[in-house]
Design brief:
Number of helices: 21
Radius of gyration: 21 Å
Helix content: 40-55%
Largest sheet: 4 strands, parallel
Strand content: 5-15%
Structural class: alpha/beta
């Protein structure tokens, strides 16, 4: 038994399980599918970072840090693993144990510079691409894609809101919008539209000073900063009267859901299950709008691609809503491909990230056909994750348009 396993058993916690090298994870791992390189596979990382007989202790520090940087944290491998091995969590731990300058830079970007993302997005458009260091080229392209002038024009009007269903389930409960880093910064139009839609439902909106969900800090190997962000958000939720927390980013949705079980509610009043209340309070905006009807106006594309984020909720609320609103206009590839964002991996391996992104666009092309007749059916893609919007914009072929589904809605 390894030391980690012994400690888990002694404390009463569920011990981590070993990778058994079955290879089930290879079927969905975006990095392996894009490169066919075994060293990038989840099972290779499990042998390096997991509770197995192999360890990183005897390997060169630079090699361990480099391998730790090569994970998209998409979570697809865990869904297939018969052992339930959580590779992103293992890699996050490995990143924390073997930090490098990229983590410091990522920390500053998320925790200190987030209020200035709008200025950075506008400034990125002025920087000539040839002079950009290779490590930052993809991130800079993504920033360029987030500037307000690159957003999609609204052409869909909601004609009927499911007010009765919303009222029946939530009555007058306070509702707060969790905007995330991008919604608070370069794409504030998302936040404005989200509030307009909630007003259309008759929601009792309240303000809450939320910050970053902490998810991207965690996978980057910054556990203390992730914990600080989580505690700040829980405190903001309490100050706002423990409202319903409405999200419109798949990654934020997943990140907030993971607060339950993270030991953030130990200080709650006795006999009050605040953790369960939090878990029941996190809801996707698209789920609240289920059953809404809409009307497409001038400028509506004849064919629209849908990119399913890796962190989409179990029932795929965004796609269900958009399918109901757009009907046969909406097309989604039979196999949903990862966009290749990976947070900090954009800095660790931009070429590899872009390679995965190219595969994603190739999959979208199978239902849109823009490579054959771009003038007839240009690439027009919607998604429901801020990171996916940034990555798809960074890797988009010439003439393609990308945006969050909130951008097509006219808040009339």
């Amino acid at each position: 038994m390894t030391d980690k396993k012994a400690a888990s058993v002694k404390s009463g916690a569920k011990p981590e399980r070993d990778c058994v090298l079955c290879g089930c994870c290879l079927e969905l791992c975006p990095l392996f599918l894009a490169t066919n390189r075994e060293e990038l596979s989840p099972r290779a990382k499990a042998l390096l970072a997991g509770p197995s007989k192999f360890t990183a202790a005897d390997l060169p520090e630079d090699d361990v840090a480099a391998l730790a940087g090569l994970c998209l944290a998409c979570g697809r491998c865990e869904k297939l693993c018969p052992q339930g091995v959580n590779i992103p969590r293992l890699i996050a731990r490995l990143r924390a144990e073997h930090p490098d300058f990229r983590q410091w830079l990522w920390k500053q970007w998320i925790t200190k510079l987030a209020p200035y993302w709008s200025l950075a997005a506008q400034g990125a458009a002025l920087v000539p691409q040839p002079i950009v260091p290779a490590a930052f080229s993809l991130a800079l392209k993504g920033l360029r894609g987030l500037r307000p002038s690159k957003g999609l024009r609204g052409w869909l009007t909601i004609t009927k809101f499911p007010k009765d269903a919303f009222r029946e389930k939530y009555a007058d409960r306070p509702v707060a919008v969790f905007n995330g880093c991008v919604g608070m910064g370069p794409r504030k139009i998302w936040a404005d539209t989200a509030r307009a839609l909630l007003q259309g439902l008759g929601a009792n909106l309240v303000a809450a000073d939320f910050s970053c969900c902490g998810s991207t800090l965690g996978v980057a190997g910054l556990p203390e900063d992730q914990a600080a962000a989580r505690r700040a958000n829980v405190a903001a939720w309490r100050r706002a009267g423990r409202p319903l927390i409405v999200t419109y980013c798949a990654t934020c949705q997943k990140g907030l859901a993971e607060y339950a079980g993270a030991g953030l509610f130990a200080d709650a009043a006795p006999h009050f299950d605040e953790e369960a209340l939090w878990a029941a309070s996190v809801a996707p905006l698209s789920g609240l709008l289920a059953g809404a009807t809409g009307k497409a106006g001038r400028g509506a594309p004849a064919i629209i691609g849908w990119h399913r984020p890796c962190h989409a909720d179990a029932v795929d609320s965004d796609f269900k809503l958009l399918s109901g609103l757009l009907g046969t206009r909406l097309r989604s590839p039979a196999k949903a491909n990862c966009c290749g964002f990976g947070g900090i991996m954009q800095l660790a391996a931009p070429k590899l990230s872009a390679q995965v992104g190219a595969g994603c666009w190739a999959g979208l092309d199978t239902v849109l056909g823009f490579s054959v007749a771009a003038q007839v059916t240009p690439g027009y893609v919607l998604t429901g994750c801020s990171g996916c919007v940034m990555q798809l914009a960074a890797t988009a072929p010439a003439g393609a348009s990308v945006g969050h589904w909130l951008e097509i809605i006219r808040p009339d």
